[in-house]
Amino acid sequence: MGLLDRIKDTFFSADGELARPRPATFDVLPNTVHAPVTGMVVSLEEVNDEVISGGLFGRGCGVMPVDGVVYAPVSGCVSVTAVTNHMIGMTMDVGVELLIHVGLGTVDMDGRGFERLVEEGQEVVAGTPLLVFDREEIAESGYDDVVTCVVTNYSDFDGVEGVYESGTLIGGRPLVKVGDPLLVVRHAAR
């Protein structure tokens, strides 16, 4: 098999359709939420949405993605899905509840440009592809494609801290790749 054939096999299925993303593999750290996408980290305060930037969804950060695949940032249960496929909730075995939300205003796209790859109630391991999104279609629809990852039940814990240090900065922002440590949830307060 030549190089071109291997590249085709990576991105396309036998019938010529785009292939489903392959799982990502990375070391999973305890009480850690890993990056669900590759891109540049932004604080929640920098996200151009009052609800998200105000912390009403939870504590965490955003990532300006470089591609359109969201991977499970933790092992756990897919606890919430949306008909519009633009967000997914997960619950870790230790009780941490996460919300992964793609874009700002993308709920108004009614699912166009999004494909969910998992179902509510499904157990997944960190690195499982959860959903794919079309960055170009989001931009053409006039929306931002920032991916936010927040701990929604943060008040049940001692704290949620960003740990997205990076030796690579783009525009002064840390670059993370799928599976890099993003957030640490400190032990339960109760």
Automatic annotation (TrEMBL):
<keyword id="KW-0808">Transferase</keyword>
<dbReference type="GO" id="GO:0016301">
    <property type="term" value="F:kinase activity"/>
</dbReference>
<dbReference type="InterPro" id="IPR001127">
    <property type="entry name" value="PTS_EIIA_1_perm"/>
</dbReference>
<keyword id="KW-0813">Transport</keyword>
<dbReference type="GO" id="GO:0005737">
    <property type="term" value="C:cytoplasm"/>
</dbReference>
<dbReference type="GO" id="GO:0009401">
    <property type="term" value="P:phosphoenolpyruvate-dependent sugar phosphotransferase system"/>
</dbReference>
<keyword id="KW-0598">Phosphotransferase system</keyword>
<feature type="domain" description="PTS EIIA type-1">
    <location>
        <begin position="49"/>
        <end position="153"/>
    </location>
</feature>
<keyword id="KW-0762">Sugar transport</keyword>
<protein>
    <submittedName>
        <fullName>PTS system IIA component, Glc family (TC 4.A.1)</fullName>
    </submittedName>
</protein>
<keyword id="KW-0418">Kinase</keyword>
<dbReference type="Pfam" id="PF00358">
    <property type="entry name" value="PTS_EIIA_1"/>
</dbReference>
<dbReference type="InterPro" id="IPR011055">
    <property type="entry name" value="Dup_hybrid_motif"/>
</dbReference>
<dbReference type="InterPro" id="IPR050890">
    <property type="entry name" value="PTS_EIIA_component"/>
</dbReference>
